[in-house]
Amino acid sequence: MDLKKAALDYHLFPKPGKLSVESSKPCLTQQDLSLAYTPGVAEPVKEIHKDPSNAYKYTNKGNLIAVITNGTAVLGLGNMGALASKPVMEGKAVLFKRFADIDVFDIEINAKTSDEFIQTVVNIAPTFGGINLEDIAAPECFYIEKELKKKLDIPVFHDDQHGTAVVVAAGLINALEIQSKKLEEVKIVFLGAGAAGCSCARLLKSMGARNIIMVDRQGVLDKNRSNLHEINIDLAIEPSAIKTLDDAMQDADVFIGVSAA
Questions:
Q1: How would residue 260 be classed by pLDDT, with cut points 50, 70 and 90?
Q2: How many CB atoms lie within 10 A of CB 221?
Q3: Catalytic site residue 57?
Q4: Cβ(19)–Cβ(87) under 8 Å?
Q5: What is the pTM of this model?
Q6: Which residue, 60, 192, 238, 261, shows the most beta carbons closer than 10 Å to its own?
Q7: Is pLDDT of 261 > 60?
Q8: Is residue 66 one of the residues assigned to a domain?
Q9: Catalytic site residue 5?
Q10: Together in a domain, 175 and 241
């Protein structure tokens, strides 16, 4: 099978894209439409105005997630821009719907700065019951997530961090059990120190892992490196002779690859 052709055809036919919007209420008669829109729609508007929590009662807010990106870290492709990231965001929406029956709007934001991105999300947040951040480059992603959690009253989840970390932790627990090894005793090497790698390592540390070495394209993260951000520094080892991936892999028990390199 020609994978490229199959993937492009899948996205093109029978109509472009992977998502559509369907009504959850009957809209066949004049009476239906007068309830769906004016004049009937004014009644839930007034109820929500009196008590904002009624939005969860009379609208789809409680089952609607925003999958949001700026396209700066798309899959292993890098900074592809907001528009080119749309197929991935639609794909994540499909997963939400297929496996949890949660509705999604995919939103791709052209933002020049992290603060501009944050403000855009804050401005549209009333529509949604939760925010799923996706494919945002590190270290900006850490700041964006932290600020949105401060500003919003709905859940904020960065999939590349937390989704990956949960899956990696679950897999490692099972693998270590099969090998009769303990998390606090094994040597773990990460290739990749971006959003996914850092989040995985932080979760494993919180679970008891003590010997973790992070490696990125410039080598081992140690505290002598001047180009580390605050999350990297927290995971960096003390300066030593361990400088490369080959060095780090000596006597390693676990290798976790979270890099396109």
A1: low
A2: 26
A3: no
A4: no
A5: 0.85
A6: 192
A7: no
A8: yes
A9: no
A10: yes
- Show the domain range for 196: 162-257
| Alpha carbons 215 and 2: distance in angstroms, whole number | 35
C-alpha 146, offset from chain centre: 13
Q: Worst-scoring range by mean pLDDT, 105-114, 137-146, 178-187, 252-261?
A: 252-261
Together in a domain, 126 and 16:
yes
Domain ends where: 107, 138, 154? 154
The answer to whether residue 92 is domain-embedded is yes
Residue 80 lies in a domain: yes
The reply to whether 181 and 100 lie within a common domain is no
* Rounded-to-integer distance, Cα 220 and Cα 193, Å: 10
Q: What is the pLDDT of residue 154?
A: 97
Q: Which of 61, 86, 92, 143 is catalytic?
A: 92
DSSP string, 123-165: HHGGG-SEEEE-S--TTHHHHHHHHHHHH-SS-EEEIIIIIHH
CATH code, domain with 171:
3.40.50.720
Tell whether 17 and 103 lie within a shared domain: yes
Beta bridge partners of 157: 132
pLDDT tens-place string over residues 18-36: 999 999 999 999 999 999 9
**Active site residue: 4, 37, 146, 151, which one?**
37
Q: Does the residue 248 lie in any domain? A: yes
DSSP code per residue over 52-74: GGGHHHHSSGGGEEEEEE-SSSB
Closest C-alpha among 151, 164, 162, 134 to residue 65: 134
Q: What is the mean pLDDT of residues 226-245?
A: 90
